[in-house]
Each structure stands twice: as structure tokens, then as C-alpha cells.
Amino acid sequence: MNASTPPQRNRLWRALAFIPNALYKGGGLGGAARRALQIFRQSGVRGVARSVRVLLRGDGPPLMADASRADRFQYREWLKRYESPLTSEARQELKAQAEQWPGTPIFALVMAVADSSHQALERAVASVRAQVYPHWHLSLVVHAALSAQTREWLESQASVDARIELLVQPPMALVADWLACCDARDALAPDTLWRVADAAVGNPQAALIYTDEDRIADDGQRSAPYFKPDWNVDLLRSQDYVSRLAFFSASLASELGGFDPGFGEAASYDLALRCAEHLSSERIVHIPKVLYHRHVASPDHVHAMDPAEYVPEGGERALQAHLARTGIAATAQRESHGFRVRYDLPAELPLVSLFIPTRNGLKLVRQCIESILEKTLYPRYEIILVDNGSDDPEALRYFEEIAARSGVRVLRDDSPFNYSALNNGAAAIARGEIFGLINNDIEVISPDWLGEMVSIALQPGVGAVGARLWYPEKTLQHAGVVLGYRGGVADHAHRRLAEGDAGYFGRAALLQTFSVVTAACLVVRRALYEEVGGLDAQHLKVAYNDVDFCLRLREAGYRNVWTPYAELFHHESATRPSDLSEAQIERFLGEERYMKNRWGDLLFNDPAYNPNLSLEIEDFSYAWPPRAAKSQSAATSA
Fold this sequence. Notes:
- 35% of the residues lie in helices and 21% in strands.
- Strands 12, 13, 14, 15, 16, 17, 18, 21, 22 and 23 form a ten-stranded mixed beta sheet that branches. Strands 1, 2, 3, 4, 5, 6, 7, 8 and 9 form a nine-stranded mixed beta sheet that branches. Strands 10-11 form a two-stranded antiparallel sheet.
- Mean pLDDT is 89; it is low at 1-7, 23-27, 62-73 and 631-638.
- Helix 1 packs across helix 2 (28-57) and helix 10 packs parallel to helix 11 (315-325).
- By secondary structure, it is α/β, with parallel strands linked by helices.
- It is elongated and about 90 Å long.
- It folds into three domains: 7-82, no CATH class; 101-328, Spore Coat Polysaccharide Biosynthesis Protein SpsA, Chain A (Alpha-Beta Complex), CATH 3.90.550.10; 352-604, Spore Coat Polysaccharide Biosynthesis Protein SpsA, Chain A (Alpha-Beta Complex), CATH 3.90.550.10.
């Protein structure tokens, strides 16, 4: 198009170019329509308009693409754009940088070899030999029943590269700084060891380093990247998200006895758990880059992101041993999407004080309170209903009625609405050792919700605990909060995910650490609530007070945990105003400004969310382009 092209023709040309782009990136007409509807439900007309603008620019395919077909239509394109090929010039540059390092880490790689795909084995060994960084040693542990042809080929590799040796059992002694275990069907990126060495040199205190990974098919096509969070001990207790690919300090691994063959395919998981028990979070480094290519488990599911692959056989025994060593009274069990840790409650149950602020809202608040009273199995709790200036006669009669019940109190507060102050006022009169912040539009689903949350809140190092909340039609409302969505402060991960969908590598169905959980249903120890000063009633009267509260807990050294095993409905839309006054909008913008000034870059560097994942939409889509990782060191986490 030249400068003289009429504006009408220009717009028509762009519109015509948009149609095939949308169909391709949306996975066909039906896929594009479904995706547009999903974006409309999540982000309204503005979200759809933003998606259209992205497609018109030729970007993406991030926002209009069909999430169920993400690999075919997104990851291949994402790799083309953001993963630069390692040219000979780039290799020389990396080698030159390594020569300037103050140290030269040496790597010992252990690869167990059994008869499987010879093509995959050749690829695995070749990927080690092709490393830019040369200071490595590869131990090929051969199975006794290995075919003569495969053994002969392995011997040929050892004969041409002195860094390769064949063994009948894992090496007992290592002349190396770092130890890693690789699968003989997988492959390393050519710069893997260079980047791990760079991280080791830049973090001299590090003793465990792990990377992101994806899947590689027999034809070399890559799919299903697992962009992992920074160190997340609760997620590690739910799935083995670390050991492919993990590098262990050789001295620490040796001190702990190395890999225990008794755990079979869970040996790496067991070692990761044992190492983590001896390390502060500052000594655990995550490299948010795909440096390991995991073989496709099933040719029928080339693009699958199957969380079951992170639940190795024997893993629950390794996890139970870990819990015993750390003195945690809990039971580990295997479930469909991962491991579940059931924490024991103490013999003497602590009293829980549940705060429920409301103004009128009889139908909702009655549903909330009656569901708690009728369904909750945990026996020791009190309800403090904070009546913020109700004037509905029927609501007032109900409040008077429930105030006469055992374990229910009504606190009247006629001051202007200030959610933080209302909860702080309830805290001042509460009798409980545990506080529960509950919205008036919550409805209990799982009877053990409170016992589950309290059992986690009582664990050392845990701050706030959040629940899995559902919209009434049983799509997901809350599965943890991610910072920085759409340039704002925070929003809910996996919002509107369908019931039964485990989400991105199971993260919508596994107990894990998040930076923030919502105060729509939040449990925290009284001592911690008081330690950080409760909710901020001065700066955050309505919005973001739960985000700020959780970040202050995190700042004080506690980790916030989300559990999918405490399930409740959140009738959120029923209490959300359809329009906002000018004063309300100004108040909201002021609270947003306060959060950005108070927390700064942290809002866009959430350690529970990988920088390769999008902040434009809550479904763990890829970021276009990826955000630069602020640092390679692990996030503060107990």
C-alpha cells in the first residue's frame, strides 16, 4: 500500500487480511468463535477489541488462538520468534563469555539406558556431545539385558569421546561440581550446560538449579512447554516439577547419599526432596528457559500437557519419607493429577473466627451463613457477622435471629464502607487463634473445607491459605492470584476454566504456593494477621487489600498457599455493581496507584508465574513477547 491509497481501501484490505489470520490463529471458524466468546466472558468488549488489534498487527497468535490447540497454532510460532538458533557465531560468543568467568563448573550427567527407541537414544547422546560448554562427563548406565547392537553403538560413542563411559550401575564417586540425571529418550538444548554454568557462577550459594522443559517427538517437532514457577515447595509436594532438568550440587548429593535406586523412577524426585530439606530458597535457582526436551509419552497425544507424567511411580513413598524427615504430621497419597498431602490437625483443635462483612444482602448472606452452619465438619468456629449499616427490615430480623444462636455474633458498624476496617474491627473482638475472611456471597460445597484450610495454615512458614472457588455454573473463579495481569495489579489464574479441567500442567488442581490468594475465602493465623498489621484500612479501603496483605505476609517471610481441596461457590456477580460512580472509579484508580508505588516491579515479576506466560489473559497462554526474567535466583519462600 502506498501513501495515496484511499483510507477506505486501506481499511478494507486490513479487514480482508484479518479474516484468514483469525481463522488460522483461532483454529478454524468454530475455534475463533469459541475463543472470542471466552475472551468476551473474561474481559468484555475491550478484551475482544484488543484481540482483534493484535491480529490486525500480525502479532501472536496469542489472544484469539484456541487454547485447546495451543501447541499446533502457538508454540511452533512462538519458537520461531523468540528462540534464536545457536549459530556458530553465537556458540563462539558463549564460549568467549565462559572464558571470562571466575570459575569452571564441571557437570556429571547420568543416563540410564535400556532398550527403547534407538533413534531417541542417539538423539539424547548427541545432544550432550553437542553442548557449547565442554566441561562435562556422561555416565551411561547400561541395563544387563541391553541388546548387543545398542551396547556396540554406546561403546563406539565412548571410544570417540573420552568424556563418555559405560557403567553397569550409577557412579558412586564423582569428580564434578554438579550432578544431573537424564532420560535416554530425552534431549538437552545445545546451550543447556552453558546456561546452568552461568547460573552457578552468578549464584555461588546455589545448590539446586532447575530449568523449564517441553516435549520432543520422533520427528523433532517440539510442543507442550512447561514454563515453571520459581521455587515452590508446595507444588513440589504435589508433583515432581523440578527434576527434569535439575542439577544438584555434587557435594550435597554425595553427603545425602546420592540417588536412591529403591525409589525407581522417582529417584530424582526423592533426591530433589532431600536436597530441598537442607536448602534455603536463596540456594535454589530456576532458569526460566526451555533447556530440556522430554520425549513424547504417547504418539497419540503429541501435544498433551499431562500432569500425570509428573507423578512418578514410587513418588508417594518418597514424599511420605520427606514428610517424616521434616517432622510434618501428614499423609501423602497419589491422585489423578498429582500427589496430595493431607496435613493432620492437632488433637486440640484451634478456635476459628470467621468474619463476614455485609450490608443488607439478605439472600446471599443467609445462604452463606446457613451453608457454613449446615455443612462444615470442623467443629470449633465462631461466626462474626459485621453489619455495615444495614437498613433492610428483613435482613435486620435475620441478623437478630442468628445473633441468638450459639457461636454467632453480630458486630454493628455504621461507618462508610471500608472492607479493610470492617475485617480489622472483627479481628479486634475475635476469640479465635485462626481468622477466616469470608465474603457474604460464599457458599460451602465441600464439608471439610475449613479443616483442610486450617491444617495448612498451622504449618510452619505458611501465611494465608486460599480455597478453590467456583462460579455458580461450576466454572473456576479462584485458583490463586497472579500479579500484573493486563498491566494492572493482579487477577485470578485459570478464571472460567471448566470443571474437570486440571489446567496448565495440573496447576488448577494441585495444592501449591501463590504470591496471593483472595480474601473472598482466606484463612490465616491470628498471630500473623496481627504481625503484619491486618488489612490496610488507610490506603486500601475496598480494592486490593487482600493482595497487599498477602504480599506483606510474603515480605515477612511466609508463603501463601492455595488448596483445591477446600471448595466453595462464590456468587461474585451477584454482589458486583453494574456501574460505578465517578468517585468510586477515582477511589479504585487511587488504590491501584498505591499498590504500584508500594510494590513496584514485584507486580510484574511474580515468582509463582513464569515470565514466558502471558499477562494478557488468565489461561496460562504464552507471552508475546516473553518478559525478561528479573533474576535467576529463587523467590523468597519458606
